[in-house]
Design goal:
Distance between the termini: 32 Å
Radius of gyration: 17 Å
Oligomer: single chain
Mean pLDDT: 87
Strand content: 5-15%
Protein backbone atom coordinates (compact mmCIF):
# COMPACT_ATOMS: atom_id res chain seq x y z
CA UNK A 1 0.00 0.00 0.00
CA UNK A 2 1.18 3.53 -0.76
CA UNK A 3 2.11 5.98 1.98
CA UNK A 4 -1.24 7.79 2.28
CA UNK A 5 0.19 10.88 3.99
CA UNK A 6 2.99 11.58 1.51
CA UNK A 7 0.79 10.67 -1.46
CA UNK A 8 -2.01 12.98 -0.31
CA UNK A 9 0.28 16.00 -0.57
CA UNK A 10 0.45 15.47 -4.35
CA UNK A 11 -3.34 15.58 -4.74
CA UNK A 12 -5.37 18.55 -5.93
CA UNK A 13 -8.70 16.90 -5.10
CA UNK A 14 -11.80 18.04 -6.98
CA UNK A 15 -15.23 16.47 -6.54
CA UNK A 16 -18.55 17.35 -8.07
CA UNK A 17 -21.66 16.15 -9.89
CA UNK A 18 -21.99 15.53 -13.62
CA UNK A 19 -22.24 18.73 -15.64
CA UNK A 20 -20.45 20.85 -13.03
CA UNK A 21 -17.51 21.29 -15.40
CA UNK A 22 -15.05 19.44 -13.23
CA UNK A 23 -13.40 17.48 -16.06
CA UNK A 24 -12.77 20.38 -18.43
CA UNK A 25 -11.87 22.76 -15.59
CA UNK A 26 -9.54 20.23 -13.96
CA UNK A 27 -7.70 19.63 -17.24
CA UNK A 28 -7.31 23.36 -17.81
CA UNK A 29 -6.00 23.89 -14.27
CA UNK A 30 -3.52 21.02 -14.68
CA UNK A 31 -2.23 22.51 -17.94
CA UNK A 32 -1.88 25.96 -16.39
CA UNK A 33 0.10 24.67 -13.41
CA UNK A 34 2.12 21.96 -15.16
CA UNK A 35 0.43 19.25 -13.10
CA UNK A 36 -0.86 15.82 -14.05
CA UNK A 37 -4.57 15.16 -14.52
CA UNK A 38 -6.55 12.08 -13.49
CA UNK A 39 -10.15 11.51 -14.54
CA UNK A 40 -11.19 8.84 -12.05
CA UNK A 41 -14.49 8.31 -13.80
CA UNK A 42 -12.58 6.83 -16.74
CA UNK A 43 -11.37 4.00 -14.54
CA UNK A 44 -14.90 3.04 -13.55
CA UNK A 45 -16.04 3.36 -17.16
CA UNK A 46 -13.15 1.14 -18.27
CA UNK A 47 -14.07 -1.42 -15.63
CA UNK A 48 -17.71 -1.36 -16.76
CA UNK A 49 -16.50 -1.94 -20.35
CA UNK A 50 -14.28 -4.77 -19.11
CA UNK A 51 -17.21 -6.45 -17.31
CA UNK A 52 -19.45 -6.13 -20.37
CA UNK A 53 -16.75 -7.51 -22.67
CA UNK A 54 -16.54 -10.58 -20.44
CA UNK A 55 -20.26 -11.08 -20.98
CA UNK A 56 -21.00 -10.49 -17.30
CA UNK A 57 -23.79 -8.52 -15.67
CA UNK A 58 -22.67 -5.24 -14.09
CA UNK A 59 -25.52 -5.59 -11.58
CA UNK A 60 -23.87 -8.80 -10.29
CA UNK A 61 -21.43 -7.74 -7.57
CA UNK A 62 -19.57 -11.06 -7.69
CA UNK A 63 -19.06 -10.76 -11.45
CA UNK A 64 -17.83 -7.19 -11.07
CA UNK A 65 -15.37 -8.23 -8.35
CA UNK A 66 -14.08 -11.05 -10.53
CA UNK A 67 -13.50 -8.65 -13.40
CA UNK A 68 -11.84 -6.12 -11.09
CA UNK A 69 -9.35 -8.75 -9.93
CA UNK A 70 -8.10 -9.03 -13.52
CA UNK A 71 -8.29 -5.42 -14.70
CA UNK A 72 -5.15 -4.32 -16.59
CA UNK A 73 -6.19 -0.69 -17.02
CA UNK A 74 -3.72 2.00 -18.12
CA UNK A 75 -4.60 5.62 -17.39
CA UNK A 76 -2.28 8.38 -18.57
CA UNK A 77 -1.86 11.55 -16.50
CA UNK A 78 -1.10 13.95 -19.35
CA UNK A 79 -3.96 16.50 -19.43
CA UNK A 80 -3.68 16.57 -23.23
CA UNK A 81 -3.83 12.80 -23.64
CA UNK A 82 -7.06 11.09 -22.58
CA UNK A 83 -6.09 7.65 -23.86
CA UNK A 84 -7.40 4.76 -21.77
CA UNK A 85 -6.35 1.16 -22.34
CA UNK A 86 -7.47 -2.14 -20.91
CA UNK A 87 -4.71 -4.60 -21.66
CA UNK A 88 -3.79 -4.18 -25.34
CA UNK A 89 -7.13 -2.57 -26.25
CA UNK A 90 -7.60 1.18 -26.44
CA UNK A 91 -11.04 1.98 -25.04
CA UNK A 92 -10.90 5.78 -24.98
CA UNK A 93 -13.98 6.16 -27.18
CA UNK A 94 -15.67 2.88 -26.29
CA UNK A 95 -16.05 3.80 -22.60
CA UNK A 96 -18.19 6.79 -23.62
CA UNK A 97 -20.74 4.63 -25.43
CA UNK A 98 -24.31 4.60 -23.99
CA UNK A 99 -24.11 0.91 -23.03
CA UNK A 100 -21.10 1.65 -20.84
CA UNK A 101 -22.54 4.85 -19.41
CA UNK A 102 -25.59 2.90 -18.34
CA UNK A 103 -23.46 0.29 -16.59
CA UNK A 104 -21.05 2.50 -14.66
CA UNK A 105 -23.20 3.01 -11.57
CA UNK A 106 -23.61 -0.74 -11.12
CA UNK A 107 -19.85 -1.16 -11.10
CA UNK A 108 -19.08 1.85 -8.92
CA UNK A 109 -21.53 0.95 -6.16
CA UNK A 110 -19.63 -2.19 -5.09
CA UNK A 111 -17.64 -1.17 -1.96
CA UNK A 112 -14.83 -3.68 -2.50
CA UNK A 113 -14.38 -2.46 -6.06
CA UNK A 114 -14.23 1.16 -4.95
CA UNK A 115 -11.56 0.29 -2.37
CA UNK A 116 -9.47 -1.47 -5.00
CA UNK A 117 -9.82 1.28 -7.60
CA UNK A 118 -9.11 3.99 -5.01
CA UNK A 119 -5.82 2.30 -4.20
CA UNK A 120 -5.01 2.36 -7.92
CA UNK A 121 -5.58 6.13 -7.91
CA UNK A 122 -3.28 6.63 -4.92
CA UNK A 123 -0.55 4.58 -6.57
CA UNK A 124 -0.85 6.52 -9.84
CA UNK A 125 -0.52 9.84 -8.01
CA UNK A 126 2.33 8.61 -5.81
CA UNK A 127 4.31 7.42 -8.84
CA UNK A 128 3.44 10.39 -11.07
CA UNK A 129 6.34 12.36 -12.60
CA UNK A 130 4.52 15.60 -11.72
CA UNK A 131 4.80 17.86 -8.66
CA UNK A 132 1.06 17.31 -8.16
CA UNK A 133 -1.93 15.76 -9.91
CA UNK A 134 -5.38 17.30 -10.31
CA UNK A 135 -7.67 14.37 -9.47
CA UNK A 136 -11.38 14.73 -10.14
CA UNK A 137 -14.28 12.46 -9.32
CA UNK A 138 -16.97 11.78 -6.75
CA UNK A 139 -15.21 11.00 -3.46
CA UNK A 140 -11.66 12.25 -3.94
CA UNK A 141 -11.93 14.90 -1.21
CA UNK A 142 -13.48 12.55 1.34
CA UNK A 143 -12.23 9.00 0.71
CA UNK A 144 -9.37 8.85 -1.77
CA UNK A 145 -7.37 11.80 -0.41
CA UNK A 146 -9.07 13.30 2.66
CA UNK A 147 -5.71 14.72 3.78
CA UNK A 148 -4.98 16.50 0.48
CA UNK A 149 -3.80 20.09 0.98
CA UNK A 150 -6.33 21.33 -1.60
CA UNK A 151 -9.85 19.92 -1.64
CA UNK A 152 -12.56 21.49 -3.76
CA UNK A 153 -16.22 20.74 -4.44
CA UNK A 154 -17.09 22.14 -7.86
CA UNK A 155 -20.83 22.44 -8.25
CA UNK A 156 -23.61 24.29 -10.08
CA UNK A 157 -27.39 24.47 -10.05
CA UNK A 158 -29.06 21.36 -11.52
CA UNK A 159 -30.65 23.24 -14.42
CA UNK A 160 -27.31 24.79 -15.34
CA UNK A 161 -25.56 21.43 -15.24
CA UNK A 162 -28.26 19.89 -17.43
CA UNK A 163 -27.98 22.71 -19.98
CA UNK A 164 -24.20 22.33 -20.12
CA UNK A 165 -24.41 18.59 -20.60
CA UNK A 166 -27.03 18.99 -23.33
CA UNK A 167 -24.70 21.43 -25.06
CA UNK A 168 -21.92 18.84 -24.99
CA UNK A 169 -24.22 16.18 -26.47
CA UNK A 170 -25.18 17.73 -29.78
CA UNK A 171 -28.51 16.54 -31.06
CA UNK A 172 -29.68 15.16 -27.72
CA UNK A 173 -33.04 16.22 -26.30
CA UNK A 174 -32.50 18.68 -23.45
CA UNK A 175 -35.30 17.20 -21.30
CA UNK A 176 -33.93 13.68 -21.80
CA UNK A 177 -30.44 14.85 -20.84
CA UNK A 178 -31.79 16.54 -17.70
CA UNK A 179 -33.69 13.38 -16.72
CA UNK A 180 -30.60 11.21 -17.29
CA UNK A 181 -28.50 13.60 -15.20
CA UNK A 182 -31.04 13.46 -12.39
CA UNK A 183 -31.08 9.66 -12.47
CA UNK A 184 -27.30 9.49 -12.38
CA UNK A 185 -27.11 11.93 -9.45
CA UNK A 186 -29.69 9.88 -7.54
CA UNK A 187 -27.95 6.57 -8.26
CA UNK A 188 -24.44 7.79 -7.48
CA UNK A 189 -25.45 9.71 -4.36
CA UNK A 190 -26.61 6.43 -2.86
CA UNK A 191 -22.93 5.44 -2.81
CA UNK A 192 -21.17 8.70 -1.98
CA UNK A 193 -22.22 12.27 -1.13
CA UNK A 194 -20.75 14.45 -3.87
CA UNK A 195 -23.33 17.24 -3.60
CA UNK A 196 -22.35 18.58 -0.18
CA UNK A 197 -18.91 19.72 0.91
CA UNK A 198 -17.26 17.88 3.79
CA UNK A 199 -15.48 19.83 6.52
CA UNK A 200 -12.44 21.63 5.14
CA UNK A 201 -13.55 21.34 1.50
CA UNK A 202 -13.79 24.62 -0.43
CA UNK A 203 -16.92 25.10 -2.56
CA UNK A 204 -16.65 26.65 -6.01
CA UNK A 205 -20.16 27.26 -7.38
CA UNK A 206 -19.96 27.81 -11.13
CA UNK A 207 -23.68 28.50 -11.64
CA UNK A 208 -23.05 32.16 -12.54
CA UNK A 209 -19.51 31.69 -13.87
CA UNK A 210 -18.29 31.04 -17.39
CA UNK A 211 -15.51 28.57 -18.15
CA UNK A 212 -12.62 31.02 -17.73
CA UNK A 213 -14.05 32.42 -14.52
CA UNK A 214 -14.46 28.93 -13.09
CA UNK A 215 -10.83 28.10 -13.87
CA UNK A 216 -9.75 31.33 -12.17
CA UNK A 217 -11.87 30.52 -9.12
CA UNK A 218 -10.27 27.08 -8.75
CA UNK A 219 -6.79 28.53 -9.28
CA UNK A 220 -7.53 31.12 -6.59
CA UNK A 221 -8.35 28.36 -4.08
CA UNK A 222 -5.14 26.53 -4.96
CA UNK A 223 -3.06 29.70 -4.64
CA UNK A 224 -4.72 30.50 -1.32
CA UNK A 225 -3.63 27.15 0.08
CA UNK A 226 -0.16 27.54 -1.41
CA UNK A 227 0.16 30.91 0.23
CA UNK A 228 -0.99 29.53 3.58
CA UNK A 229 1.57 26.72 3.26
CA UNK A 230 4.38 29.18 2.45
CA UNK A 231 3.27 31.33 5.36
Amino acid sequence: MTDSISTATKFIAIDGPAGSGKSSVSKAVARRLGFGYLDTGSAYRALAWHVLERGADTADAAAVLAAASDFPVVLGLDPDDRAVRVGDTEVTDAIREPRVSGAVSGVARVPEVRAQVNELFRTLVSDAPYPAVVVEGRDITTVVAPDAPVRILLTAAPEVRAARRAGELAGENADAVAAALHRRDASDSAVVDFLNAADGVEVVDSTALDFSQTIDAVLAVIEQHRGAHRG
